[in-house]
């Protein structure tokens, strides 16, 4: 794809009308015609109205139906965490030898989900994948909320939460520093950096749209608040120029983070010497898995939104198909990694290693392993078929399978490796308690509360950017726009 | 210093000194003071566990602590602060007192640590003659091993649920009033010479009690004496006395034996005096090189015991068929003179052909080792088996070599059955029960409760508020042995003192005081009674002798005499043998074997949390008893018990019925059990006990009759359809063919002395050593991240290391309790154990190898390995676990935030986590959030803000709990990881002591701790001396010498963690002629099946890796 993302010809806030072309030019041959990213040849005004209209319009009833249970779930999370911190980690199912249970599974799972947003906004941006504009805003919001959910777990899973700040390298009178050899230490840096940069990136991308919202606001409060966060955006060329630079820089900064954060999370496991954890394949395999689960979650979120807000013309079938292809690719990488783990376990000749993998597939937790294999390896293979890729309901269902599969992948890695390791007398069986389950469900409350607030108060599609990828924004197309190699 | 009488909680007329707290309380000045300062608080005196009471106790015991040498007591002036610093008292330094724990037939000589006036740790008294022995090299050695009961007994002292009230008809009465009742009792019976007075005692060896008994019998000539022990361990003595025609007790010298045969005698686990047995047995099994010889043990038993696990050959027979084995052995071994005896024994019937062959070969082996062989019979077997054993020993020429006999006092006490007869006959007016708890543990057919009601008045001295206490008219709290004056004789007959380390916490009485008061004797203070007895027993300067007696903890040369014995009288023995034909148990007519519980004995330790949580060494079940059945029986009955593969332990409950009585309990598969045999452990299912024992297990006494006390037949088992969750500390019983415990037969070991290392796994080839090479110019590749310890090793004076000899370890678990006591390890309760959250720093791993019917069982103590390259350290994000220069992997509790990563990365999984605040919170309320809890009427959060150092346990529990803690070890809060520290506190104390010694002697540089000066708690308690700790830098230290042995190996050596704890591989000594002979131990066979025979394929793939491993494993 050689297309260049062109900046919008005019600041979106000011562009109210456009005129249809009055002369005809011979178009390119049919096979070279690109399917437009926004269907039905809608102009910029329509886009502004449609996307901003979601926020400005009346709150739909379904929103309340979703919001109230989410808030209740969030309350449950708060209750569970209070119970946990006041009573002790023992209320969870973690035991000896399975000292890490659902908390770490959930942490890795949420972090994985948090991958797609930044991948879509940063890497696809750098790769000039213009289709990303329809989904990047929602995906980034998803990233931020997912990382928030993820961040809760490593903090509260420790025995003495009130001393969690000891993981930070703070100067103190005893000159005690954190232990920089520990992967948990690296996690602290990796996750907090990732979160900070993701928030910044998301916020910078929001500024032009916040200005649009400010300009469209019909009451003082909205105007003030959107105006406050729009940081005095005027849409001047200088604004745009600075904005583009900042955005590009942040994209450059985020790109390595996308790869690093999950690599480092995977080091929590691979740095240890536990069979099933101690594997060099983990960093790439975790990143692929994270992208896989992130796209799964984006699909899960975007497909209903598209329908409910009638955004089918902006988030088109082509978008869905492309996301399905990414899912297929990453799912296959993950499947390859599973096979490779088995091969290496056999090839190593280490009986402990071999036992761990046999036990994974055929031991007491075999059921979890086969759920993982079916959801992560078998199900995505259906995306080879265009019929399936373009069938919204099937894609939605499959995206949920991907989410389930990836949760089980983390469960399999964490729990089955720990529950039977070197010395058989230690072996045990891990069972979650109701608190584990409620805490996990509670994080959905947190996630959806924030996400619902986000779609209610912020434009869930980057208005300015989508306008930039419409044919109308390109003065050299039939609709009039710049040529390839134009300004960027 | 003149010895002044010690405290006695007994007011006397016109005391010159305060002799007790009560007395002090009784002085008008003191009362006035109390009332002036806290008018309302004065009533607290009646509350036995109020804070104030504790202040008194503590101040009182504070004084005791300052007494310097044991027994040299200062005049008792109870003033709270020290007016004058007591001689030799240094605040914070513990004092040690010699005392003894009385047992049924003897005593365990002890040295007890007292920290600021409260006993905190129990050790064996290594000065006692029974603990002196010659090691394999013939050098005199001492040992201080004890059994787990002695180690755990300290917790019972601080048991908040022990009897602490004087009651009449269940209502609390004034102490004085209760004592007056005793006086009335003696007055009442004086005119009638004790007509209608009956005493029910427990067995003990106290000469003072015997003297007192004689005195009372003089005064109350018509009073009758009975004894009750639910588990009678007196049979060897009875049998020996019968066989030799005079009262003698046998004692066995297993270290001298080459061949040992156990006839259902679990001398390592559940017989009397197991610590001694374990030491002697281990002494015969220890070898230092492949040319050494070792003893061979044959075990014949119904249940799987520790003895069976340690045996080279094990024959499983129903409990009732052991007599057949004994008869067959007698037939093979006794000559013509024993013909009558053999004929009498043969009534039992023949064994199967295979079993017969086993016995015959065993008999041949015994004959080959005449004079160096011994046969032991266990307490579960009837007198006939004991008599046969004595006859066999005599025929083998073992008397005087492996079996010695010493004088004993004849048994003059009548049995409980006689007492019941007397009670039912209406001839008992007043019954005085001292200690025994027949309402719980009397045979079911005696209907004790009804019988007891027939006595007009029942007085009872008891340690607990138990079943019997509830039925008595008067109940007196008994003093713990650490609060009492008394005496006892150890198994060799040596006289030992029982001296108090603390005033009775609840004003309890000792047995001696109680009996003296019942009889109305002038001399009714235990101290005086004991001194009087001592005067009679010891010659020489009395005061000096007494002081030495208390200081040393024994009276020298007071061991019982070994009389010259006439040859065994075979005709008398043959007459005494009564054997009837043995019925083979079947599925519908099961045989029941009642077992003395490894943890609770006969139920006396029921409320001891350490023992309740101590896993059974065989089943690993905690907090309850289960109905043990063999896998085949269980399958025959159509029941499925625990799944040892997935580790789920939800098992069916079943109803066991015999003779019209029934119990209900969970069934449990026990590999190696005789088929159609159900094994029931006694001591659980108490109806009235404390908070700890409440609700643990079922009561097996309900099935037990006086006719069949240990083996009952004709039982029927039916499933109830319910299930039961059993908590075990080890769910998986297979070793999966992994070389974790390494063992070989002696013959293989002789061929391949390095067999242990041949099982090493190949390690990746890369430089593992960063030590500079000596060769000039040679450049060895340096590791990327050199281990800082390698640098520190060059300068550190000590490199601490440990060796555990798996050949000596018998699996008795004394180390577990010793560790728990030394290191303030809390108990976590049944529910937590069910979640594998127990906190034991040292555990005994147990594996069954081979089939489930005839398995071999192997043990391995597992604790922190103190790896030089510790995987736990590098993953801790806050540096809470690090290495010190001397090679210890140290844990900094204050720094730990509880990520638990260290545990995940520990290949040995020896780190334990405080999931809850086990120390501060009641164990049954762990899951309740403190935010919603209130304790004693006050909201928990408010209590916490008021005083953060207070727990949410009830006040009485909390105050007592604090006393048992070792002040040298931090008590861990919730959310922190903990693990074995190699008893860091002891190491530091040893180093400081050596520094002081060096300073005092002028040799300032001599700060290297001498070998053996520092002992870890587990090492000190180990009766088998399987654990050796010391400085591995010193090549002459015993630990270094052991590490140099060819059997030395480290577990999971291929991970290159370089543990400082290594093991000496186990060597079995089977007899190749036996029908069940195995070419190699079954664990090795399993290993070979998975990995190929390590001895055959050697030299191909493994050769190159070995030098690395050896380097790594050191």
Number of helices of chain B: 37
The most extensive interface, with participating residues per chain, is: A-B, 56 and 67 residues
User: How many strands, which pairing sense, and closed or not: the largest β-sheet of chain A?
Assistant: none
Shape of chain A: globular
Structural class of chain A: mainly alpha
The chain-level mean pLDDT of chain B equals 84
Mean pLDDT of chain A: 86
Oligomer: heterodimer
Provide the low-confidence segments of chain B as ranges. 1-25, 33-49, 59-79, 1098-1114
**Residue share in helix of chain B:** 25-40%
Question: What this model shows, in words?
Answer:
- The complex is a heterodimer of chains A (488) and B (1114).
- Chain A is mainly α and 488 residues long.
- Chain A is built from 15 helices and no strands.
- The longest helix of chain A is centred in the middle third of the chain and has 34 residues.
- The radius of gyration of chain A is 24 Å and the shape is globular.
- The N terminus and C terminus of chain A are likely disordered.
- By secondary structure, chain B is of the alpha/beta class.
- In chain B, 29% of the residues lie in helices and 17% in strands.
- In chain B, helix 10 packs antiparallel against helix 11.
- Chain B is globular and about 95 Å long.
């Amino acid at each position: 794809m050689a297309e260049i993302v062109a900046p919008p010809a005019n600041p979106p806030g000011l562009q109210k009308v456009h005129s249809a072309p009055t002369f005809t030019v011979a178009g390119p041959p049919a096979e070279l015609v690109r399917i437009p990213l926004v269907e039905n040849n809608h102009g910029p005004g329509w886009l502004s109205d449609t996307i901003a209209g979601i926020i400005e319009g009346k709150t739909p009833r379904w929103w309340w139906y979703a919001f109230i249970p989410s808030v209740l779930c969030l309350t449950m999370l708060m209750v569970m965490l209070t119970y946990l911190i006041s009573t002790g980690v023992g209320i969870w199912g973690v035991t000896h030898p399975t000292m890490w249970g659902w908390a770490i599974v959930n942490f890795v799972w949420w972090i994985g989900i948090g991958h797609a947003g930044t991948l879509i906004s940063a890497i696809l941006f750098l790769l000039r994948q213009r289709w990303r504009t329809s989904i990047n805003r929602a995906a980034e919001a998803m990233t931020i909320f997912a990382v928030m959910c993820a961040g809760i777990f490593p903090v509260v899973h420790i025995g003495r939460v009130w001393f969690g700040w000891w993981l930070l390298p703070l100067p103190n009178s005893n000159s005690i520093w954190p232990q920089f050899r520990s992967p948990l230490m690296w996690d602290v840096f990796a996750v907090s950096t990732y979160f900070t940069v993701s928030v910044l990136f998301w916020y910078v991308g929001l500024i032009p749209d916040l200005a649009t919202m400010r300009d469209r606001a019909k009451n003082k409060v909205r105007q003030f608040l959107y105006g406050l966060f729009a940081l005095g955006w005027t849409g001047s060329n200088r604004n745009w120029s600075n904005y583009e630079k900042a955005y590009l820089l942040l994209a450059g900064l985020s790109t390595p983070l996308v790869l690093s954060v999950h690599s480092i999370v995977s080091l929590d496991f691979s740095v240890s010497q536990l069979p099933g954890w101690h594997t060099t394949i983990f960093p790439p395999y975790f990143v692929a898995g994270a992208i896989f689960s992130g796209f799964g979650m984006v699909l899960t979120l975007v497909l209903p939104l598209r329908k409910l807000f009638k955004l089918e013309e902006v988030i088109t079938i082509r978008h869905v198909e492309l996301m399905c292809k990414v899912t297929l690719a990453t799912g296959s990488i993950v499947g390859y990694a599973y096979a490779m783990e088995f091969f290496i376990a056999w090839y190593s000749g280490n009986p402990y290693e071999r036992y761990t993998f046999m036990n994974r597939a055929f031991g007491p937790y075999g059921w979890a392993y086969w759920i993982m294999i079916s959801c992560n390896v078998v199900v995505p293979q259906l995306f080879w078929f265009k019929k399936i890729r373009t069938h919204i309901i099937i894609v939605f269902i499959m995206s949920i399978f991907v989410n389930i599969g990836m949760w089980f992948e983390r469960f399999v890695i964490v729990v089955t490796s720990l529950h039977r390791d070197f010395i058989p007398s230690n072996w045990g069986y891990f069972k979650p308690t109701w608190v584990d389950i409620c805490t996990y469900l509670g994080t959905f409350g947190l996630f959806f509360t924030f996400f619902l607030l986000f779609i209610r108060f912020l434009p869930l599609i980057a208005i300015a950017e989508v306008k930039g990828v419409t044919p109308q924004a390109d003065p050299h197309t039939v609709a009039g726009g710049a040529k390839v190699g134009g300004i960027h | 210093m003149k010895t002044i009488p010690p405290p006695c909680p007994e007011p006397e007329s016109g005391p010159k000194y305060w002799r007790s707290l009560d007395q002090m309380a009784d002085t008008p000045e003191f009362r006035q003071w109390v009332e002036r300062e806290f008018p309302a608080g004065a009533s607290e005196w009646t509350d036995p566990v109020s804070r104030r009471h504790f202040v008194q106790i503590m101040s009182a015991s504070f004084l005791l602590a300052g007494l310097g040498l044991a027994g040299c007591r200062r005049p008792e002036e109870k003033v709270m602060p020290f007016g004058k610093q007591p001689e030799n008292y240094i605040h914070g330094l513990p004092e040690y007192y010699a005392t003894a724990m009385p047992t049924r037939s003897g005593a365990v000589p002890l040295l007890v640590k007292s920290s600021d006036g409260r006993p905190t740790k129990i050790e064996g008294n290594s000065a006692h003659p029974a603990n002196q022995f010659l090691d394999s090299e013939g050098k005199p050695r001492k040992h201080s091993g004890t059994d787990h009961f002695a180690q755990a007994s300290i917790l019972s002292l601080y048991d908040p649920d022990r009897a602490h009230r004087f009651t009449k008809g269940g209502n609390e009465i004034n102490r004085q009033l209760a004592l007056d009742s005793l006086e009335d009792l003696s007055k009442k019976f004086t005119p009638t010479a004790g007509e209608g007075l009956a005493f029910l005692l427990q067995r003990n060896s106290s000469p003072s009690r015997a003297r007192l008994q004689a005195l009372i019998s003089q005064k109350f000539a018509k009073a009758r004496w009975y004894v009750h022990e639910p588990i009678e361990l007196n049979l060897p003595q009875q049998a020996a006395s019968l066989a030799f025609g005079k009262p003698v007790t046998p004692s066995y010298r297993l270290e001298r034996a080459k061949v040992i045969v156990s006839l259902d005698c679990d001398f390592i686990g559940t017989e009397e005096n197991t610590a001694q047995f374990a030491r002697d047995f281990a002494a015969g099994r220890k070898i230092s090189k492949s040319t050494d010889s070792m003893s061979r043990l044959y075990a014949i038993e119904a249940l799987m015991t520790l003895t069976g696990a340690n045996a080279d050959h094990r024959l499983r027979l129903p409990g009732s068929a052991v007599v057949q084995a004994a008869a067959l052995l007698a037939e093979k071994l006794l000559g013509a003179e024993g013909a009558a005896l053999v004929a009498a024994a043969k009534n039992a019937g023949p064994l199967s052909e295979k079993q017969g062959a086993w016995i015959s070969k065993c008999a041949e082996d015994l004959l080959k080792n005449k004079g160096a062989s011994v046969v032991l019979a266990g307490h579960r077997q009837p007198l006939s088996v004991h008599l046969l054993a004595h006859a066999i020993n005599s025929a083998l020429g073992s008397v005087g070599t492996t079996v010695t006999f010493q004088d004993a006092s004849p048994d003059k006490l009548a049995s409980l059955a006689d007492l019941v007869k007397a009670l039912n006959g209406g001839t008992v007016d007043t019954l005085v029960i001292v200690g025994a708890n027949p309402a719980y543990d009397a045979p079911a057919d005696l209907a004790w409760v009804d019988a007891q009601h027939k006595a007009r008045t029942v007085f009872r001295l008891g340690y607990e508020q138990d079943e019997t206490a509830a039925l008595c008219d008067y109940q007196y709290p008994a003093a713990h042995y650490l609060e009492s004056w008394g005496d006892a004789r150890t198994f060799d007959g040596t006289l030992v003192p029982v001296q108090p380390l603390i005033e009775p916490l609840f004003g309890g009485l000792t047995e001696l005081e109680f009996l003296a008061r019942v009889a109305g004797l002038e001399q009714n203070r235990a101290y005086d009674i004991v001194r009087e007895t001592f005067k009679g027993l010891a010659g020489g300067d009395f005061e000096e002798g007494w002081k030495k007696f208390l200081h040393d903890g024994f009276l020298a040369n007071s061991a019982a005499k070994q009389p010259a014995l006439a040859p065994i009288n075979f005709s008398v023995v043959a007459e005494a043998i009564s054997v009837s034909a043995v019925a083979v148990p079947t599925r519908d007519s099961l045989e029941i074997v009642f077992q003395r519980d490894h943890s609770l004995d006969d139920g006396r330790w029921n409320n001891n949390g350490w023992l309740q949580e101590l896993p059974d060494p065989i089943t690993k079940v905690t907090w309850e008893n289960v109905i043990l059945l063999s896998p085949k029986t269980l399958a025959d009955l159509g029941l499925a018990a625990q799944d040892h593969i997935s580790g789920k332990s939800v098992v069916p409950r079943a109803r066991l019925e015999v003779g019209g009585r029934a119990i209900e309990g969970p069934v449990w598969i026990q590999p190696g059990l005789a088929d159609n045999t159900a094994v029931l452990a006694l001591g659980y299912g108490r109806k009235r006990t404390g908070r700890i024992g409440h609700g643990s297990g079922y009561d097996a006494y309900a099935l037990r009759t006086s006719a069949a006390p240990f083996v009952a037949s004709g039982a029927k088992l039916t499933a109830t359809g319910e299930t039961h969750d059993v908590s075990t500390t080890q769910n998986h019983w297979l070793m999966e063919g992994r070389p974790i415990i390494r063992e070989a037969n002696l013959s293989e070991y002789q061929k391949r002395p390095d067999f242990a290392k041949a099982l090493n796994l190949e390690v990746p080839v890369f430089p593992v050593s960063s030590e500079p090479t000596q060769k000039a110019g040679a450049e060895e590749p340096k590791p990327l991240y050199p281990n800082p310890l390698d640098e520190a090793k060059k300068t550190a004076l000590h490199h601490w290391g440990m060796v555990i000899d798996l050949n000596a370890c018998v699996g008795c678990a004394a180390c577990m309790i010793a560790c728990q006591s030394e290191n303030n390890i809390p108990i976590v309760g049944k529910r937590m154990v069910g979640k594998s959250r127990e906190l034991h720093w040292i555990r005994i791993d147990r594996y069954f190898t081979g089939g489930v019917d005839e398995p071999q069982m192997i043990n391995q103590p597992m604790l922190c390995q103190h790896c030089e390259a510790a995987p736990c350290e590098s993953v801790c994000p806050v540096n809470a676990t690090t290495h010190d220069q001397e090679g210890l992997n140290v844990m900094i509790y204050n720094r730990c935030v509880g990520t638990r990563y260290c545990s995940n990365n520990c290949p040995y999984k020896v780190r334990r986590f405080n999931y809850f605040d086990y120390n501060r919170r009641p164990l049954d309320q762990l899951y309740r959030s403190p935010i919603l809890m209130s304790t004693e009427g006050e909201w928990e959060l408010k209590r916490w803000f008021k005083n953060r150092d207070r727990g949410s346990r009830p006040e009485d529990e909390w105050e007592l709990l604090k006393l048992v803690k070792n002040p040298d070890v931090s008590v861990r809060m919730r959310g922190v990881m903990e693990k074995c520290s190699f008893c860091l506190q002891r190491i530091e104390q040893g180093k400081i002591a050596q520094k002081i010694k060096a300073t005092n002697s002028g040799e300032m540089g001599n700060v290297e701790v001498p070998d053996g000066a520092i002992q870890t708690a587990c090492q000190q308690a180990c009766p088998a001396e399987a654990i050796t700790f010391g400085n591995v830098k010193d090549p002459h230290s015993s630990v270094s010498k052991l590490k140099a042995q060819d059997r030395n190996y480290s577990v999971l050596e291929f991970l290159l963690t370089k543990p400082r704890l290594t093991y000496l591989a186990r060597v079995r000594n089977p007899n190749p002629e036996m029908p069940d002979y195995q070419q190699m131990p079954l664990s090795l066979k399993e290993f070979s099946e998975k990995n190929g025979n390590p001895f055959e394929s050697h030299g191909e793939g493994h050769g190159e890796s070995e030098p690395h491993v050896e380097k790594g494993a050191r």
